[in-house]
Design goal:
With 342 residues, this protein is α/β, with parallel strands linked by helices. It contains twelve helices and twelve strands.
Length: 342
């Protein structure tokens, strides 16, 4: 099921705008100056290899970074409140009243592994009804009825009986669907999905993706979708942000990025995707090397040790600035973007 957006539709005002976000764990920066925005009814896909800072970025937006980490710079501007003024979430206490009130009705997150995210000692019904009673002020009975409707909405059969089930009693696909229902319990304006289909079989993955796309259309939610699967990006996304070692190296509308990738890293990622068209290659293309450690960042452009077209004396020395195309639809962080644009 392809996204209905083409990247050329008028984009409404952003619900969330992230500016210059930096997140550090001790002396090491996992997120190093990230900028993006998401509008209601739109899906921004954040892609890249493991260890590039995608999940840390999402957790920073929710102010759920692990205790060892901290937001050191930047703004997380939330435009979803009643006030005309944007609220800077980076300036709030992560455990304070304002941030706790925002989680649930404002923003919610689907975590990558439901078995570790769901409580093993509380039933699915308890985990579903608690946020509704806390944030929406529903009675126990009203919350249970809404919980049944939500479980049915996400495709769980016999939903009323599932209220008394524990996470270990559900299959992987059912647990992920239950987690989606919990995230939707308070009808959030922003849904963050951190690789929600990674552990699922192909059939269940397709069903979950169709469900998420349908929810975005029907509820007008904004969604930040984190994945390493470019096939999922093509199916679900409106805009793509390619992340490498804590930075967004290219951002563009989804079809523009697939048709004409500019950054060498984006091009390498697309070459590594198997295709059913044309002659079958003997082996899949791979990106040489590994994502460097945060403790030993390369000088200059951090991608240059793995870039086939890096220029000595430039890419290995100077950090490239982010540049935007004339129409403003694409940003790229590369010294030689004109030479590399496909």
């Amino acid at each position: 099921m392809m996204s209905e957006h083409t990247g050329r539709d008028p984009v409404p005002q952003p619900l969330l705008r992230v500016e210059g976000l930096r997140v550090a764990f001790g002396p090491y920066e996992a997120v190093r100056g990230v900028d993006f925005s998401i509008a209601p009814g739109r899906v921004l896909c954040l892609v890249g290899e493991s260890g590039c800072g995608k999940s840390v970025t999402a957790r920073a937006v929710m102010r759920l970074v692990e205790p060892a980490g901290r937001v050191t710079a930047g703004r997380i501007l939330w435009h979803g409140g009643e006030s005309a003024e944007a609220m800077d979430l980076a300036a709030l206490d992560s455990r304070g009243r304002d941030m706790r009130a925002l989680r649930g009705p404002g923003m919610a997150m689907i975590f990558q592994e439901p078995m570790s995210a769901l409580s093993p000692v509380h039933t699915i019904g308890e985990q579903l009804t608690e946020p509704m009673r806390l944030h929406l002020g529903l009675s126990r009975k009203a919350a249970e009825e809404r919980a049944v409707d939500l479980l049915a909405r996400v495709g769980i059969p016999n939903p009323r009986a599932r209220l008394s089930a524990y996470a270990f009693q559900l299959s992987g696909g059912m647990r992920q669907r239950a987690m989606i229902a919990i995230a939707l319990a308070c009808s959030p304006k922003l849904l963050i999905a951190d690789e929600p289909t990674t552990a699922l079989d192909v059939t269940t993955q397709a069903q979950v993706l169709d469900l998420l796309a349908e929810l975005v259309r029907e509820l007008g939610m904004a969604m930040l979708f984190i994945t390493h699967d470019l096939g999922v990006v093509a199916q679900l996304g409106d805009e793509v942000a390619v992340m490498y070692l804590g930075r967004i190296v290219e951002r563009a509308p989804v079809f523009d990025l697939f048709d004409r990738p500019h950054h060498p890293y984006t091009q390498a990622l697309l070459r590594s995707v198997p295709s059913l068209r044309g002659p079958r290659p003997r082996r899949l293309a791979a990106i040489e090397g590994l994502v460097p450690s945060l403790a030993a960042l390369p000088p200059g452009c951090v991608f240059h040790p793995r870039c086939e077209r890096a220029a000595a004396g430039l890419c290995d020395r100077d950090d490239p600035a982010e540049t935007a195309t004339a129409d403003g639809l694409r940003t790229v962080r590369c010294h030689r973007v004109e030479a590399f644009a496909s």
